[in-house]
Structure formats: structure tokens, C-alpha cells
Amino acid sequence: MAAEKKLTPMMQQWHEIRAKLSDDTLLLFRLGDFYEIFKQDAERGAKLLGITLTHRHGMPMAGIPYHAADTYMQKLLDRGIKIAICDQTETPKPGKLVKRELTRIITPGTRLADTQIDANRNHFLLALDLGKKALQAAWLDLTTGEFVIASEARPENLFAAFEGIDPREIIVPEGAAQSWADTEGSFGELYTHICDGRAVTPIPDYHFDVASGTQSVMDTLGVLNLEGFGIAKDHAALGAAGALVHYATETLCAKPENLRQLREYSTKRTLLLDPATLRNLEIFKSAASTRQGSLLEAMDGTVTPPGARLLERWLCAPELDLEEIRRRQDCVEEFVAAPGLTTELQQMLRGIRDIERILGRLQNRMRNPRELGGVRDTLNALPGIAVTLLEFPETPVAAIAGRIHNFDTLCEKLAGGLADELPGKIDDGGTIRDGYDEQLDHYRSLTRDSQKWLTEFELDEQARTGIKNLRIKYNGAFGYFIEVTKANLALVPEDYIRKQTMKNAERYTTDVLKEREREILHAEEKAIAREEELFNGLIDAILEYADSLKETAAALAEIDVLMGWAGMAREWDYCKPSLDDSDRLQIDQGRHPVVEQMLRDQRLGLAGTHAFVPNDSNLSSSGDKLPQIALITGPNMAGKSTYIRQVALIVLMAQSGAWVPARSCQLGLVDRIFSRVGASDELARGNSTFMVEMNETANILNNSTERSLVILDEIGRGTSTYDGLSIAWAVIEHLHPKDASGPRTLFATHYHELTQLAKTLERLENYSVAVKEWNDEIVFVRQVVKGAADRSYGIQVARLAGLPTTVIDRAKTILQRLEADDSSHNLLRKRMKKEKSGGDTRDEDDQLALF
Ligand SMILES: Nc1ncnc2c1ncn2[C@@H]1O[C@H](COP(=O)(O)OP(=O)(O)OP(=O)(O)O)[C@@H](O)[C@H]1O
């Protein structure tokens, strides 16, 4: 207690505020031009930020300059640290403790400042709760106001969506986090996976209560019920939504003001992509974890950040609604047919600002004059965009254009009120245009007159005292003063009153200067206060239009994505796919969108690289005239993986509403894409390659339907040949139910033995990727043809890879011996050889019963 008594009033204030925060939060305490960090926070902060730790009266402290705070905050947030900001909430007065309040807590999932967020990506905060029957989830992007709930009896279906939304922070009920991670089976694994590398924040369980959650969601949205959003009052995920609202309110230190809508995500309305497929198909990130080389990058022709964000949302939730898919496709078609207008529109879109996020900040009390300038400039650009869109009358594009509102009144108000050049902060002055407000003009003229007066006063005093270098100066602590250097002290007149002694100068004031100082400061203070009032008035005027601004921003984002797709369609000669409810998939001359682009880029630099070779794909789940399963064999490096992936990517693109890299494409809607391809990054998580492969395969066998698309690449290669072959064999049989339909499947393999399945499975057809042999060398022609391949040409490919000749020669010898060996494994191969040469295979058929 004795120690407590000694605290200065300011430290008492610090203690009171610090006590409201959790231990892991770092408190930044505004002190003049610095944010100070004290005590235990100082030790932690100094280490994390690499700044000097000092001690005052034994108390550790560290400080960061207010003007550079953004950079330091960014560093802390990137390390997953929560920051609490305590600001001065009144103008400091000498001798009085300034009022301070917590103004914000910033966590990885609740950042708002544009310097702290990625413009092209959403920043979602995700809340999870596992009920007895279902997983409840809600996610919210505070920067844009997007707010979604979901409830799913099969949690694995939702984890696919989470992978796509890529949450920055996950809120869970206290106590649950560890027990969920320890849950046996897929839930535990998926939960651990989604938490990996993300901030996880436990909050008390009662914040997940459905009844109180519903109430706080309704209060925040400003509605009396949720029927307008098609959501039942007792929707089980409203508990998670309530937890989000609570957390957002706590961190913003106020109710989030930009939440206006709530949407339900349903796995039944979306083509599902499980996390493994998103990774395997390199949808959002390449295998090297970069955007480059991903489908997202190859499909991104957007020119605005909201467009880029919408593209990502569309790609992680491709549609099952034919009408919506066709609407998007038709818009792309309009833009494809009007390249000139499209380029013009794109040019205009480049000039607009991110209204959705500006609104988010304005509504949540992060206001600076330049944001208003952004709204003004964007509104000025809208009529031009709207007029250009009128060139698409009575088309789906015109329907989107119809969602762009008219803001003439607001435009006029902002043009009249805002200065042309805007400062970064309202306190800097100069936000409001001269002539907009009489009162402000009056204070400003007083200040301007005073500046003139001060200049004249300086000249007069120089003349009166004979001190040529006498200066009138100003600083925040001492106000206005007359500065005289030490050498001229003898000339200082009697009426000068000493204010401060410096090393080389003395500072004085006079009664006249004191009087004038009072007037000037008063006028400046009044001017700033009036300017702030007017500034808030303009913000209120903007916020009155919040809903129509949001709708306009959403329409512009759509136009941006669709024009980007049209640009791609023209540049890469894509076709408009035709989608229906059938069970077929027919792609004529399909290409891999990413590999094709990479090959062209390489070709520019590397002579001799070939262009992408297109291939057809034809499947139907009932096996009606087309196979249900395509089994693809072929040499290493021939292009098997590329081929099967391209089919999956084309389906995903088509159901997102984009055009696709093919000459033509007919597609019966796919409900899920499953993949088991390539190595995975699971090794670091303690799973072996084979284990991962089997987990993914199990998921496919358990969850695929006859509407699904399954692509499997080299199943079973992670174990011994016999085990692998047997598993692959059984997997194919499972995917080919007797007398029923099965998922449309592409299966690439090096087990040539599997090609025999075509004899027993009527809906399976063999294909191979052709190569030409020339002088014991192979030439890749990348053509997929009907019929099985006879060998792997592994040794030839190894030679291409640069294995030493001695190793290649030795491998050939071993291969010859193995092929001569009469093992049961080679029976199949021998049999195939005989078959090819028209020999008798009856003996081996008996042996085949083994499989
Ligand atoms: N249709 C194509 N046109 C042009 N180049 C292609 C085509 N398909 C594949 N390639 C090129 O060939 C390379 C190898 O393809 P891919 O990995 O698909 O072969 P693979 O048969 O699956 O090989 P492995 O069996 O060794 O895994 C790709 O990286 C790509 O550059």
C-alpha cells in the first residue's frame, strides 16, 4: 500500500487503465508526442520492437514517437500481439492531469487502419463453437462490415470455407481450445490445422450464449428481428455471432457501427473445396506459398482492392446456382464484346478509392481528412462510370449498373466543404475550404492577422532594442516568446519579462505580447474546434448515405472482377462454358490456366520452350456413352498431373462464373471437388506422407457423391509397391459402384497393372499421355490419347534430369533383370506386353484373380 501511495496521479491513471486489460495486451499510453510503455509492458515491448528500455525511479519504461506509431504497431500485430491504445482525450492544460481513455484495442483480427491491413484481402475474425450436433461459426470483417454465420453438422465441410476466408484471428470459448485440439479424428486435426500460425483468443463461454447473442446481434445491426436476412431467431450460430459482436465492441471500445447485414453461409449452396484440395490445386497460394503460380493470380484481372477481395470470395465459394453462374458469364460476355469500353471503364475504376473500407473506418471513429477526400474523388468519378455503363442497355451489366446510386447532393456538399489539398490529421488545420463557413473564416482571419502582427512586432522590437537577431518564436510548452542571444543581453530593455533560460539565449515576453498571445491561441483553438465540428458534419452527411455507398461499392467490385475475367478471356482465348444439371463433363481442347500462362512467360525468355498442348476430357457419372473414371497412365513428366488438375480448375472457374481455357465446355454442376495430388506440407505437423495420402483418400471415399469430381494422382505411391497397388485397386473399385453412378473421376497412376480394371469395370476407360521414342530418348508430346501406356520411361526421364551415366546404365541393367524375373508382380506387366503383341494370356488371367 505504501508503494501505491507514492504513485503520481498520472501513474495512478495508468494503473487504472492497465487493470482493465488482460496480461497479454501491451498498453501504449499517450504522453505528449510519445506513446509510453511502462513496467512489465515496457520490458516486453522494448524486446519486441528493438527499442531502448530506460528506468525512471527504478520503473522500466520505453517510448515510441506518436508520428511513427503505425510502423511500430504493425510490427507488434504481425507478431500476434494485442495492443491497447490509451489517448489524451482533452487538450493538455498546464498543471492539470490530462484526461486519458482507452480508445482502441487492436488485435490481429480487428485492425482497421489502412497501414495495418492488406488492401486486396479480407481480414476476417472467426468465432467457433462446437455444439452437440453441429459446429457453429460466425465470421466478420470489421474493415468492410461483412458478417456471416454458419451451422454445419459435418464440421469438415465448414473447415473448407475457413481455409478460403483465411481468418486473421479465431475466437473460441475458454477451455475449449485445448480439448478441441486433442479431439481424436478429423475434427481435432482440422481445428489444429486452421489455428496453425493464427492468433487464437479464448473468451468466457457465456459470450457464446445463443439468446443473448441474438439480442446483441440485433442491437448492433439495428433491427428488431433477423427475418429480413432470412435467419431464424434461434439460429444456433447466433451464439458465435454474439461472441464476435462482444469481442469487436470490446476492442473498438464502442459498438461496431458498420455492421448492417448478416448472411448465412450454407455448404449446400456452394461448391465445396476441402482444405487439402485448396492447397493441392494451388488455388490461393502456390506450392511455394506464394501468390505467384496460384489460380487466384492467374484469374486476377482486377484493378481495385475491393475487386480483388471479391474475386477471392467468389473463388473460395463457387456457385451451385445456375442462374447466378449464367448472370456472371453473361456479363463477361458483354465485356468481351466491348473491349474499348471495358478498357475505358477499367481506367476509371483505377481512380476510385476503397469506399467499403473508408466507410468501415469512418463508422468506427477512425477519421482523417484524406479519407473524406477519397470519398469525394470517388463520387466525382461515378457519373462517368455510370454513363459508360449506359452503353450496355438492357443487359446483365446494366442490372449491375442499376446498383450504382446518384450522390449529386453529397458530392456538392463535399466539393463545397473540403479543401483541394487535405491534411493527414484534422488538428493540422486546413481541411475545410475557405468560404464554406463564416465563423471559421472569421477565426482564420484573426489568426492570419496575428501572423502579420507578429512579423511587424518582431521588426519593431529589433528597431527599438537594436538587437538585429531578435526573434519572435513559438513552442507548445511556453507559447510565444522573444528570443535574445547571450551576446545581446545587455541590450534587453527593462520591460522584458524573463520566461526561460537557454544555453545560448534568454527567452522573454512583454505585456503586449502576452495579450496578443492570448488572442491568437484563442482564435486558433476556436478555429480548430469549429473545423472539427464542420468535419464531423461532413462525415455525418457521408454516413447518411452509408447503405447506398456500400451498394455502389459492391456493384463496382463486381464490375471490376467481371471485366478482369473478360480481359483474360480475350487475351487467352477462353470460352463461355455451358452449365446444366446433367451428369456430364465435356471439355474440348482444355488447358491448364496457370501452366499455360507460365509457359508463355518462359517462352519469351527461353527459346525452344513449347506452347501448352490442349487436351479433351469427357466424363459422365452414370457412364452413359462417356466413362465415369478416366485412368491415365504415361511416362514421368508426360503431363498427367497437369492434365487432371486442369479439369478440376476448369470446373472451379466455370462454377465461379468465369470463362474457361478450352475451345468448348459442357458441365453438369459439380457439388464438390476432391483431390489427392502431390506432396503435402503436413510433414511438419507430424504426419507421414503416406498417412496424409490415406487421410485424404479416406475423406474422398467417405464424402464424395455422384455429383462430385474426384482427381487422384498416384495413390499408394507412399508405401511398398504391392500395398500401394492393392490400395489403389480397391479405391478405384469403391469409386465405381456396381449398377449405380459414381463421381466423375480422373485417376493418374504409374501402376500400369491398374489398366486391367477396364476389363471388369464398365465405366472405366484407359487413357495415356503419349510420348515419342527416338533413339532411346523420349520426346514429350503432351497429348492425352485413348488406351493404356505400356511403360514409365522413368530411366529416360532420370537421364533428362541429369543423373550420372553410370547410374543410368546400372539402372537399365537392374530393370532388365527385374523384368526377366518371374515374380507375380511382373505377371501383369508381362501379360500386358503379350496382350499388346496379340499373345495368349489365359494362364495369367487365372493369376489375376489375385487382384
Ligand atoms: N499439356 C501440356 N502442354 C505443355 N506442357 C505441359 C503440358 N502438360 C504438362 N506440361 C509440362 O510438363 C511438366 C510435367 O508435367 P506433369 O507434372 O503433369 O507430369 P506427370 O506426368 O504428372 O509427371 P510425374 O508422373 O513425374 O509426376 C509440367 O511442369 C509442364 O511444364
TrEMBL record:
Q: Name the GO cellular-component terms.
A: cytosol
The record ties this protein, via HAMAP family, to: MutS (MF_00096)
Which amino acid positions bind ATP, per UniProt? Answer: 634-641
Q: Where are the transmembrane segments?
A: none
Q: Which CDD domains match?
A: ABC_MutS1
Q: Which organism is it from?
A: Coraliomargarita sinensis
Q: What is this protein called?
A: DNA mismatch repair protein MutS
Query: Example GO molecular function term?
Result: mismatched DNA binding
Location of the DNA mismatch repair proteins mutS family domain? 708-724
Q: List the biased-composition ranges (Acidic residues).
A: 842-851
> Does NADP appear among the keywords?
no
Please name the taxonomic classification of the source: Bacteria, Pseudomonadati, Verrucomicrobiota, Opitutia, Puniceicoccales
